Amino acid sequence: MLVRLLLTILTVVVLGLSAACDRTGNEAGDLTQVPQGVTESEILIGSSLALSGHASYLGKQTLLGAMSYLKYINEQGGVHGRTIRVIPYDDKYDPPLCVSNTQKLIIEDKVFCLFSYVGTPTTVKIIPLVDQARIPLVGMFTGANALREPFQSYIINIRASYYQETAEAVRRFVEDLGLRRIAVFYQYDAYGFDGLKGTEIALKRYGLAPVARGSYTRGTSDIEEGLSRIISSQAEAVVMIGTYEPCAKFILRAHQQGFTPLFHNVSFVGAEELARLLGVEGDNVFVTQVVPPPESPESKTLLWGAGEYNDLLRRYYPNERPNSVGLEGYINAKVLVEGLMRAGPDLTRDGFIKALESIRDYSLGIANTLSFSAQDHQGFDRVYFTRFKDGKFVLITDWNEVKQNILSGKAAQ
Length: 413
Fold this sequence. Notes:
Blueprint: H1 2-24, E1 42-49, H2 56-75, E2 83-90, H3 95-107, E3 113-115, H4 120-123, H5 127-133, E4 137-138, E5 155-156, H6 162-176, E6 182-187, H7 190-204, E7 213-216, H8 224-232, E8 237-241, H9 244-256, E9 262-265, H10 271-278, E10 285-289, H11 297-302, H12 304-316, H13 324-343, H14 349-357, E11 384-389, E12 392-395, H15 399-412
Parallel strand pairs: 1-2, 1-3, 3-4, 4-5, 6-7, 6-8, 8-9, 9-10
Antiparallel strand pairs: 10-11, 11-12
């Protein structure tokens, strides 16, 4: 206990000195000093994400998507003559390990910024470190509200939030499909609580509340108690805030017991891995996404950003298949590079943040443009809705067709 306390004190002192240096030196405009993590030839970036364990698909695909673009940029000569090097540490989707990794990245590795973290329970735990070190944190694979409110000067969110995803799911279920009995199945941690609260807020707008709540413990697939509670509620739809393995198990067990409501998952579930686990049992399963499905016909023909990601992924990682998680990581990397380009050759952390804040209506080749400001550090607000069809999740373009399909399916039962 004493050793842990001393390490914590040392971390705070070192981070405080780092912040003081930034305020009095580099970030005050003294360009005779090289900012931390930057040399004449290199910019050092740090990441902590799940590269092993039960959420490893999400961490690996996020990193591969980001590296597809960063490798391409480095081949072109980098940014203002500097190549970008990423130090990725495996946190196994474990919050204490994520904190330890982040401390190492800041204090020992001396990275310029943090990038592409994965997961709510892990990322929210490093908010105090980001604030103390005054270090940019850019492009996280999480829609957690805690990363958005209260406003954090050094946190740059690119994707839409879980509140926005669950609000869109509730709106579609209530307004388009006429459903009112909606339950919530969630991971019992900061991630699940965030999605649960977002769903409750959305339902309240229609004078509704969840007809049941069921949960499971992070890192397990113990879904039976939550499933039993939700089946008993006779829910017409279930909003799911979890990862691919427990959510797939929940849906499969529900079908085995003759319980066939509509199932909605938020983007963090990992749609492609969920589809693989469901096999032929994916009917009436939906996923909201914050990027379009990269291999959908619409994306391939109309959205050049998705096609660019597909091409570069195949160039650098030919054994990998394009997926929504990877596309999000790819977009994160494009935003990172755009900020570094706009910051100019005399790179500082505060200059990098101001450069990102200057981005307005910037096209990344998907259906919506990116914008930041000094008061708004979330780049995208759009939510895409996908539905399981023929072994994969496809973009929904016609909700009347979805409604007719669901009604005809019920009539057949």
